[in-house]
């Protein structure tokens, strides 16, 4: 299990495991077997091998304990299972709940974005500044995600929010320029403009 690539670096997203389907960086990732245990998958593969003669290829790096995933699977997971046998289904349940919370947060971010967006690449600064601090961050993360742009770190996002909140006269007196991988964000005459630079 791996953390989902954070759409905004939020704690809820950070606790989620890979979703059954996810759109990240212009690619759809489909994982239809996430809810199926490894033991069950291995049994099915072995039965298929006996019936057809086909043989699966085992990736040796999966059990290489010099790598993090091999160490977790070969040493750490069995030790945890010995002391807390129910940890796997418990973790899966919490991950599903985190995934649901993340989906709700995404929906809320889209609703807020619709309220303050003038276009796909322009937001109204006055309406954005009327939001609470968490809502401001959520809108900017949702905006970048909708355009399939790389997410800034939490520190960088906080810095952008600070600059947008400190622009005097709602952006009429000076031009703000904030560069992020793949885009530039400017504040001009009360509007937040995003230009894709990829």
Automatic annotation (TrEMBL):
One Pfam family cited in the UniProt record for this chain: TilS
Domain of life, per lineage: Bacteria
BP terms from Gene Ontology: tRNA processing
GO molecular function: ATP binding; ligase activity, forming carbon-nitrogen bonds
InterPro entries given in the database record: Rossmann-like_a/b/a_fold, tRNA_Ile_lys_synt_subst-bd
GO CC annotation terms, alphabetical: cytoplasm
UniProt cross-references to Gene3D superfamilies, sorted A to Z: 1.20.59.20, HUPs
Domain tRNA(Ile)-lysidine synthase substrate-binding: from-to ranges: 123-192
The protein, known as: tRNA(Ile)-lysidine synthase substrate-binding domain-containing protein
